[in-house]
Design goal:
Elements (H helix, E strand, L loop, with lengths): L1 E3 L9 H14 L7 E3 L14 E5 L8 H9 L4 E5 L2 H7 L1 H7 L2 E8 L4 E4 L2 E4 L9 E6 L5 E8 L5 E8 L2 E4 L13 H12 L13 E9 L5 H13 L4 E5 L2 E4 L10 E4 L4 H12 L2 E5 L25 E4 L5 E5 L6 H17 L7 E2 L8 H10 L2 E2 L3 E4 H5 L8 E4 L5 E2 L5 E2 L20 H11 L6 E6 L5 H13 L3 E2 L8
Parallel strand pairs: 1-2, 1-3, 3-4, 4-11, 12-13, 12-25, 12-26, 13-16, 19-20, 20-24
Antiparallel strand pairs: 5-8, 6-7, 6-9, 9-10, 10-11, 14-15, 17-18, 21-22, 23-24
Bound molecules: zinc ion.
């Protein structure tokens, strides 16, 4: 059971709800969940759940005594994050001192850019407006055990996560400003302590799983390039997946000498042959959008398939940064279903098998698009855009959202089983304010992902980059002890 500050319904604190929703998505890896405001907690509910997760976002929040009583007196594991631990400590001071013996105080510590957890150093971004983390003081190390240490650039440290009796405490919400090497990985692993205490903390190395997905393959792909990559992975004994968009559109002719151009898989038999070659050499074909662009829009580039957004709006600002704008007006679940069905028909028309896994272009979509995909596919293979409206109802606001990746398989708020992708890709040029990323960056993120029990090293790769860097990444990830598997193998 996941609990958050504030009320439910339309008057809700949407940021607090999004935090709870992201926690629930992660928790789904371990089992089913429920979410509600802590104000609605009823005495004794703790005993009906295997664990409680509480996220304190507001210091004004008055936590019900029934909840404080149950946390302090039951044996149910509780993970408490961020604010309001003082309300728990002051509820029954003698009990707190005898059983827990630590404090989280305000003001917090700002500038923490590193968290050390189980021998692994994780990063933490410190953007403007970072609320910092709560300062934790351990009064009795025999009762309160430090699980992770936060560190500032000057070397000063404070506990980031503590465990005492049935309580785990994390000194912040770990969902803000996450990255592939982030302390979010520590939180993802800690959930295993709370939600699956019987599972081994350190799985055998042969159980470490890795995924590689080839990206953005359209009817305009170079068939020789696809065969080269497929041959390379097959000879290395690496199963892989590849994301295909069945319809190519260049509405302004930007890539076709000014001539508006459109064709589909069945118009390019040599590409279809190459896709069959990939399937025959260990490749799992997945569906990566329908056109991977949207009408005649520059969304945000030139409207060309494989580059633009399809189920979300975005533009480029004067610095050429990509700015997400929100949902596509006038669309509906039926609009998305019709679009998906048109794409599925093209696979059939080309004589290819129906893909069983869907990946949204740029991992971007609205709640109704997620629902439509859930009606056609048992699996997605991407990240989730969480919307506050998914919890509180009403029309989704594209700006009240939180984008989330997973280091392991989950069933997210939209009900889809989501195959994880967390390491990203090689980027020869930087994107927005981010620097270019090379094979070493992806391997480094895979190394830090080892800190997550059940952590999957999952990355994607664009075939036009050639085989050398792909080889380098595959070798690097294997050297860490991971074994490459098929996408569904990571889902329990
Ligand atoms: Zn794509």
């Amino acid at each position: 059971m996941v609990l958050y500050d504030g009320a439910g319904g339309a008057g809700a604190d949407w940021a607090a709800q999004l935090t709870a929703q992201q926690a629930a998505n992660l928790a789904s890896h371990f089992g089913p969940w429920t979410v509600k405001p802590v104000a609605d907690y009823e005495a004794g509910e703790a005993r009906q759940h295997s664990a409680l997760l509480y996220f304190g976002s507001s210091r004004d929040s008055r936590i019900p005594a029934s909840f404080l009583d149950d946390v302090l007196t039951s044996r149910v594991p509780v993970l408490w994050a961020d604010e309001n631990l003082d309300q728990l400590a002051e509820h029954t001071p003698w009990l707190w001192r005898s059983r827990y013996a630590f404090r989280a105080t305000d003001p917090g510590v700002s500038g923490v850019n590193r968290v050390d957890y189980r021998g692994t150093t994780l990063t933490r971004e410190t953007p403007p407006g970072d609320r910092g983390i709560r300062t934790v003081r351990v009064d009795d190390p025999g009762k309160a055990k430090v699980l992770a240490q936060a560190q500032r650039p000057d070397g000063s440290r404070t506990p980031w996560a503590v465990r005492a009796a049935n309580l785990w405490y994390v000194g912040e919400s770990p969902f803000d400003y996450t990255s592939a090497t982030d302390r979010y990985l520590a939180f993802s692993d800690l959930l295993g302590d709370v939600l699956a205490p019987a599972a081994p903390v350190t799985p055998a190395m042969e159980e470490r799983q890795a995924l590689v997905r080839l990206e953005d393959i359209g009817p305009n792909a170079d068939p020789d390039q696809l065969r080269d990559i497929g041959t390379c992975l097959h000879q290395a004994g690496v199963p892989f997946s590849f994301g295909v968009l069945p319809i190519y559109i260049d509405p302004h002719g930007k890539a076709n000498q000014g001539e508006p151009t459109s064709f589909t898989l069945k118009d390019r038999p040599e590409v279809v042959e190459a896709l069959r070659f990939l399937i025959d050499h260990g490749g799992t074909m997945i569906m990566h959008g329908v056109t991977h662009q949207l009408g005649a829009l520059k969304n945000p580039y030139h409207g060309i398939s494989g580059e633009d957004f399809e189920f979300f709006l975005a533009h480029q600002d004067s610095r050429k940064f990509v700015i997400p704008d929100g949902l596509v007006p006038g669309t509906s679940r039926q609009w998305a279903l019709d679009r998906i069905d048109r794409g599925l028909a093209e696979f059939g028309a080309a004589g290819l098998p129906r893909p069983q896994i869907w990946e949204f272009p740029h991992y971007a979509a609205g709640p109704l698009d997620y629902e439509a995909v859930g009606q056609r596919f048992a699996y997605r293979y991407d990240n989730t855009m969480n919307y506050a409206s998914s919890v509180q109802g009403g029309f989704p606001d594209g700006n009240k959202r939180a984008d989330q990746f997973y280091p392991y398989g989950v069933r997210d708020i939209y009900g889809s089983a989501v195959i994880p992708e967390s390491l990203g890709n090689v980027e020869s040029t930087g994107h927005n304010a981010r620097p270019p990323r090379g094979p070493e960056d992806i391997i480094d993120a895979a190394r830090r992902t080892l800190v997550v029990r059940d952590g999957v090293a999952s990355f994607f790769y664009h075939p036009p980059l050639g085989v050398d860097r792909l080889h380098e990444i595959v070798r690097g990830i294997r050297d860490l002890g991971y074994e490459f598997v098929r996408p569904w193998d990571v889902m329990r």
